[in-house]
From TrEMBL:
This is Siderophore-interacting protein. InterPro entries: FAD-bd_FR_type, FNR_nucleotide-bd, Riboflavin_synthase-like_b-brl, SIP_FAD-bd, SIP_fam, SIP_rossman_dom. PANTHER family: FERRIC REDUCTASE, NADPH-DEPENDENT, NADPH-DEPENDENT FERRIC-CHELATE REDUCTASE. SUPFAM superfamilies: Riboflavin synthase domain-like. It comes from Dyella acidiphila. Signal peptide: none annotated.
Length: 265
């Protein structure tokens, strides 16, 4: 068997309508929402950083789903499209048929604005995931690097990773109060980095902490998720200055400083 062999699993994209079951502010900048509903049954969440498309009510309070046309998403003529954003599920419990999504509350944007006012009984749409990236389990070390938008994926990866793994987490958050309890059966440590008022796009806390990490004996897999430019910068540093093979790095832009969605590997 090839060492460090990742797998990509493709899924049939299913569009669903789901209902809010409960809402809880778990830190000053994170709202946890539990979803359910009959259409959620059969939901696939095979990897910690799966992405789904959440579809929110438009200005008229309507859920307007797009159809996939030859030029991409197409909406009914005259309809006001529903805002859509990419999110990483924090967890899915098939027995309870409950999906947990953690929303970063940052005061603007359709997703954050909706999540801050969400109440049980409200409904949104969801599509995907379209695929799951299954990380090889035979690395000697795993380094997880991300800002607050990456915490759901980091928490899920810590939940799922095998007991013999050794994991280092670099987690950047707005404030000390935004620390979350994280657990794992693996041997892991978390280095929390508080911005204390610095903007998430201009901070360099993760970059400096990554440079300060020792080069351990053995092979290390690096998972990075942050603002797009910052994720690219960290990937470039690992590849060009540390000589890490590109297959040992998965760097994703979870958001862009200009307010648009982004996703890259």
């Amino acid at each position: 068997m090839t060492r460090h062999e990742h797998r990509m699993v493709r899924h049939t994209i299913v569009r669903r309508t789901i209902e809010v079951l409960s809402v809880k502010r778990i830190t000053p900048h994170m709202q946890r929402i539990v979803f359910g509903g009959d259409e959620l049954r059969g939901f696939v969440n095979a990897a910690p950083d799966d992405h789904v498309k959440l579809i929110f009510p438009n200005a008229h309070g309507e859920l307007v789903f797009p159809a996939l046309g030859p030029n991409g998403p197409e909406y009914p003529p005259g309809a006001l499209p529903s805002p859509m954003r990419d999110y990483t599920p924090r967890d899915y419990d098939a027995q309870r048929n409950e999906l947990i999504v953690d929303f970063v509350i940052h005061g603007d944007g359709p997703a954050s604005t909706w999540a801050e006012q969400a109440k049980p009984g409200q409904r949104i749409g969801i599509g995907g995931p379209r695929g799951s990236f299954i990380t090889a389990e035979d690395f000697d070390y795993y380094v997880l690097v991300g800002d607050e938008t990456a915490l759901p994926a980091i928490g899920r990866r810590l939940d799922d990773i095998h007991a013999t793994a050794r994991v280092k987490v670099l987690a950047e958050i707005p404030l000390l109060a935004d620390r979350q309890p994280l657990g794992s059966q693996a041997q892991f440590s978390v280095h929390w980095l508080e911005r204390d008022g610095v903007d998430g796009a201009s901070s360099d806390l993760l970059e400096r902490a990554l440079r300060e990490l020792p080069e351990w004996p053995g092979d290390t897999f690096y998972w990075i998720a942050a603002e797009s430019r910052r994720a690219r910068t960290m990937r470039k540093y690992l590849a060009e200055e540390r000589g890490v093979p590109k297959e040992w790095i998965r760097a994703t832009g979870y958001w862009q400083a200009d307010g648009t969605d982004d996703e890259e590997d």
